[in-house]
Amino acid sequence: MAKLWSSECRLYFGAYDVGTATTRVNLALVQDALEKTAIGDAAESFIAGIRRDTMEWAGLFDGSLSMDAAMAALIGSGTNNTVSLLLGTATGNRAYSGTVLGMSAAPAVSIGALVTQEASIQPDGSWRPAVHYGPKRTISAYDLTGTHDHGTETTAGGQVYVHVFDWTASGGNARWQGTFIHSVTGGLWTVVQAFNIVGTGAPTPTAISVTIQRRTGFEFTLDAVSGTLAFFVAFARS
Questions:
Q1: 43 occurs within a structural domain
Q2: DSSP strand E in 81-214: where?
């Protein structure tokens, strides 16, 4: 059994890497069980209800990180409200990702202590178990940011989650292009979905409807003369 230390975990709120300000994260995957037992039944019976996943976060009010801005960005339906929790930093490790539907957050101040903050975060639907292609990284040219072999699994559809922490691009079309790719053998990669990156944040998660082959990956291409890109990518199969 491979055990993880907290130092091998990462937490991203939209365009913010909040791991350095985080002291505790509790992720709950919850599905209601609704009872339908009727009079005269010999045993109890239930039906699966709706998902009620949550995330409880606690950390430090980091002024340099603009923790208040990171929290505020999660509220609403903008381009910053994706959350990803990485359990392990190696390519192919588990990540849980989702978009935020609701949140309550509050700072706490006491004499002689650091300012802390806590938040309760509710996803829009559920936290999706995903694989990721490595933690946050920065590139300045074309990069195949990692590939993962899912074994024999092929699935119709899934969800791609992208966090863009920072980017620059000058000259040419002044943008980065991201491409989600897949392959049967790893020898020939084909494009599943492509999109342009022209701003920071977490673009709306991209829904994939085609059948995904056993190997997946993500590549970024600089469509400019020069530039840098700091990003994270995860993929959740249906």
A1: no
A2: 82-87, 94-108, 116-123, 128-132, 137-139, 143-149, 155-170, 175-183, 190-197, 206-212
Cα separation, 11 vs 19, in Å, equals 5
**Same-domain status, 95 and 114:** yes
Q: List Cα–Cα distances, 102 to 12, 41, 134, 141, 207, in angstroms.
A: 17, 39, 28, 37, 21
65: containing domain: 9-34+51-129
Euclidean distance between CA atoms 228 and 175, whole angstroms: 10
Residue 44 lies in a domain: no
Q: Please tell me what DSSP assigns to residue 204.
A: P
**Which tens digits make up the pLDDT trace of 26-81?**
999 888 777 888 888 788 887 777 788 999 999 988 878 778 788 877 876 566 78
Cβ atoms of 231 and 179 closer than 8 Å = no
Based on the domain organization, do 75 and 142 belong to the same domain? no
Q: How far apart are the first and last CA of the chain?
A: 26
> Where a domain ends, among 94, 129, 164?
129
Q: pTM for this structure?
A: 0.88
